[in-house]
Amino acid sequence: MRLRCPHCQHLGSIRTTKVMTPTVSQHYIQCGNFECGHTWRATTEADMTISPSATPAPSVHLPLASHMRRDVLAQQIRSGNTAEHTPLMTPPETRDLFAPAGVDGPS
Length: 107
Ligand SMILES: [Zn+2]
Known about the structure:
Strand content: 25-35%
Structural class: mainly beta
Number of strands: 4
Bound molecules: zinc ion
Strand order of the largest sheet: 1-2-3-4
């Protein structure tokens, strides 16, 4: 991710990030314009889900975007077939997207 320098509007590079919470991070950024050279801190916050995670963290509660067809999504998750998959990057926290934390869906 790159952010625009508030002074010269060139793109800056994030040099380091401090994770404050699962949804909030502080970034330390250097402007890419050598004639500017501004270094600054910016805070980013995840504030909405546009597409749901396949491995949702039970502790993260973001509002869902209004375009999501919750009824259809819930129906597809509840009645769809399952294809076996072994996660490569992140083990799932729950097997059922809409199940309460710690409760697995049908196997
Ligand atoms: Zn700049």
